[in-house]
């Protein structure tokens, strides 16, 4: 599966785009929409580069989410999970109660788990709270296309 436009827009909104390298709160050199591979101090990119890096980075998370989920998922559920993994990391998703509940078929329980991931360094961050609420909302949104696909 591939992330949908809603999921991509969610990542872009919460990651933001910075065209010069900066250290994220964890101290990692970052550029564009959260790109960290081979980023160095003083590095600068174009908006086109930022988009390209984002698409490359997302592929890794799409592949990981695809391999981790063991139940059918809608486009919105998949996209919310890619956004979540993009932010917290693949290993955090792999070991999460969110994934365990999803793979047991407990969609509401899985959706509620997003909200628990709003802290950094033990402190609740308003930006993470907003992101997790947006991911949960996307996860729970059923599109008409999803409904039609499920009836085929």
Report on this structure.
It is a single chain. The strands form 2 sheets. The protein has a two-stranded antiparallel ribbon. A two-stranded antiparallel ribbon has the order 3-4. Strand 1 and strand 2 form a beta hairpin. The protein has helices at residues 5-15, 47-68, 75-88, 90-94, 97-103, 107-113, 126-140, 144-150, and strands spanning 18-23, 29-32, 119-120, 123-124. It has one domain (5-150): Lysozyme. It contains 8 helices and 4 strands; from the N terminus they run αββαααααββαα. It is globular and about 45 Å long. By secondary structure, it is mainly alpha-helical. Helix 1 (5-15) runs parallel beside helix 3.
Write the layout of secondary structure elements.
Blueprint: H1 5-15, E1 18-23, E2 29-32, H2 47-68, H3 75-88, H4 90-94, H5 97-103, H6 107-113, E3 119-120, E4 123-124, H7 126-140, H8 144-150
Antiparallel strand pairs: 1-2, 3-4
Helix pairs in contact: 1-3, 1-7, 2-3, 3-7, 5-6, 6-7
Quick structural summary:
The protein contains eight helices and four strands. It is mostly helical and 152 residues long.
The total of helices stands at 8
Biggest beta sheet attributes: 2 strands, antiparallel
Number of strands: 4
Structural class estimated from helices and strands: mainly alpha
Helix amount: 55-70%
Q: Over the alpha carbons, how many angstroms does the gyration radius reach?
A: 16 Å
Low-confidence stretches: none
CATH top level assignment: Mainly Alpha
What is the H-and-E element order?
HEEHHHHHEEHH
Mean pLDDT: 94
